[in-house]
Design a protein that fits this description.
Elements lengths: L4 E9 L4 E10 L2 E12 L2 E11 L5 E10 L2 E10 L2 E4 L5 E2 L2 E3 L8 H6 L8 E9 L5 E12 L2 E6 L4 E7 L5 E4 L3 E8 L1
Parallel strand pairs: 9-10
Antiparallel strand pairs: 1-2, 1-15, 2-3, 3-4, 4-5, 5-6, 6-7, 7-8, 10-11, 11-12, 12-13, 13-14, 14-15
């Protein structure tokens, strides 16, 4: 059962045609992020719906991803196991947070939880969803550093460093070359 919607955001992909619509709702003693990501790939349209379950301390407790990638159906359940994450019977992967990979929505969870002092990087380990065709979780390190004009976000394993714009509620509103978002309500 979902509660009142506290925030809604619409992201537009910048690297290809696509959108992602996400809502944050209070559910019981925690939170729920519900989203609908759509984009085009050479294999065809990708249409993924996701639900991230979050406890009252802003720690993700699990996620479900359903939809289609081209003609192939997608139905994944990701659960927390010990200090990591497991995807449908695969061996658990260590990680403090869960990075869905195809949406910036996941970042609101650590950004609401972490204290990010200005100009001091904070490293975060995640289990990242990779290989949307044959899904798997892989360990990935992220580094966040608050700056006066945004938030530096580095992903060393992907050789990526970007200056993000983040709204006061922790939602990424711009990820250069990837996403541009507009808060529809809340934040």
């Amino acid at each position: 059962m979902s509660g009142a919607v506290l925030a809604s955001v619409i992201w537009h992909r910048l690297d290809r045609d696509g959108t992602d619509r996400c809502r944050l709702s209070r559910v019981g003693d925690g939170w729920m992020l519900l989203g609908h990501a759509r984009w085009e790939e050479p294999e065809g349209e990708v249409a993924l719906d996701y639900a991230l379950r979050v406890d009252d301390c802003w720690r993700c407790t699990g996620a479900d991803v359903t939809g289609f990638r081209g003609p192939a159906p997608v139905a994944w359940r990701i659960t927390r196991r010990g200090g990591g994450w497991a995807l449908e019977g695969q061996a658990p992967v260590d990680g403090e947070d869960l990075d869905l990979g195809f949406t910036p929505a996941w970042m609101v969870v650590p950004l609401r939880r972490l204290s990010l002092p200005e100009a001091r990087p904070v490293t975060l380990s995640t289990a990242a969803l990779g290989g949307l065709g044959a899904a798997r979780l892989e360990p990935r390190e992220h580094s966040f550093c608050r700056q006066r004009d945004g938030l530096d976000h580095a992903v060393p394993s992907l050789s990526r460093d970007a200056r993000l714009n983040v709204d006061p509620g922790g939602f990424v509103t711009e990820d250069p070359g990837r996403w541009r978002g507009v808060m529809v309500s809340g934040g």
